[in-house]
Known about the structure:
CATH class: Mainly Alpha
Number of domains: 1
Bound molecules: heme C
Shape: elongated
CATH architecture: Up-down Bundle
Number of helices: 7
Radius of gyration: 19 Å
Amino acid sequence: MKKRNLFLPVMIATMAFGSSLSSAADIEKTIEARQSFMRVYSFNLGLVGDMAKGKSQYDAEIAANAAKNLLALAKMDNGPMWPQGTSKEDPGLSEKTRALPETWTTYPKVSERHKELTEALEKFVNVAGKDLASLRMGIKDVGKGCKGCHESFRAEEEE
Length: 159
Ligand code: HEC
């Protein structure tokens, strides 16, 4: 009899979060992981973005490597970083995440956006290390790939 009651808290947690995440701390770690992942995208895009804008000198090797890193990141399987119940509308998360509920409610739209970025990056790896003009051409679709997803699935930054 006593043993059976042990299952109750687990069941409630599963119902509340729709996943195996069981504590607020786990959820925060998961959100931090995906935000950190996005920052690694951002760092690598910054390297080539600065070159495209003339803020830094074009360097074929750095550009080629940044492009390869971006593609490698896009190819990671990050499903577990995006469990249901972790949008900014979910209880207690409005300050922790900018992920909009549409990420889940309109699924698989978010995956289509991700696919567009991946496709842009597959082209970008072939041109980033060629020369500055090619990098500038290719980076446009990469930028669109990031923005295309943020427009629908990421809330504006709050002041
Ligand atoms: C498939 C959708 C999608 C794609 C593609 C995408 N992002 Fe994001 N990004 C998000 C979502 C959703 C968030 C909000 C995550 C959160 O706060 O939990 C986010 C957050 C971020 C953040 C803020 C991270 C933080 O510290 O809070 C940065 C920076 C970022 N993205 C950069 C990029 C860059 C650069 C690219 C393209 C190379 C990109 N993203 C592609 C969906 C996407």
